[in-house]
Design a protein that fits this description.
Length: 211
């Protein structure tokens, strides 16, 4: 079950730390090539010790509350790797991480760490936007014989494309906060104008044709 109080609390936390920035007048360009009015960089959390631990504990709570099954925790490159490590440490669980592609040198590994076929894993991502990187990671771990049971993340933009990825692989995406709560918190607590919020929500509904 999605915890709306927790989602609003983490939305305010990320906005306060400027991990999430909203600027419709000067849109950001994403890895997909699309432009949008919001940028999330959860790596900034790592420099703030109390907040870093709060986020890690929140992700652990998602695992426990949803009774997720796992043999290992798997961080997704690159920003999901440190958060995943913290989650694994708190849970006392083995840890692996998944590169965006295989290395071009050494052993050419895409997945680093000890694992075996049939292991159940929980994927840890910092942000789920369009879901393309998550889709590729799921394919990679399945090809290695691993069984992903869920993806936990700090922020979910609630994009239809990402929801299709979740449905295609039958893997739930569980987040600490999401686009709806960030939009609400930005306007109610952080000075976002109604006009800017309208542009933000228009982008979320149809990112390919924004603005």
């Amino acid at each position: 079950m999605f915890d709306s109080d927790r989602a609003l609390r983490f939305a305010n936390l990320l906005l306060s730390l400027e991990c999430v920035q909203v600027n419709p007048e000067n849109p950001y360009t994403y890895a997909s090539g699309l432009k949008g009015p919001i940028y999330t960089d959860n790596r900034q959390i790592l420099s703030h010790v109390p907040e870093r631990l709060e986020v890690a504990q929140g992700l652990v709570d998602l695992v426990r509350e949803n009774e997720l099954k796992f043999d290992s925790i798997a961080g997704l490159a690159t920003a999901g790797i440190p958060h995943g490590m913290l989650v694994a440490h708190i849970l006392g669980a083995p840890y692996i991480y998944v590169r965006s592609k295989s290395k071009e040198h050494g052993k050419g590994n895409q997945i680093e760490g000890k694992f075996k076929a049939g292991d159940k894993i929980i994927l840890v991502e910092d942000l789920v936007n369009q879901g393309s990187s998550l889709d590729k990671a799921i394919v990679a771990v399945k090809e290695a014989g691993l069984i992903p049971t869920a993806c936990i993340c700090i922020v979910d933009y609630e994009m239809p494309a990402a929801q299709e990825v979740s449905k295609k692989h039958d893997i739930p995406v569980l987040s600490l906060t999401n686009f709806s709560n960030i939009s609400h918190a930005a306007k109610s607590e952080h000075g976002l104008s109604s006009e800017a919020q309208g542009l933000l929500e228009k982008w979320q509904k149809d990112p390919a044709n924004w603005p």
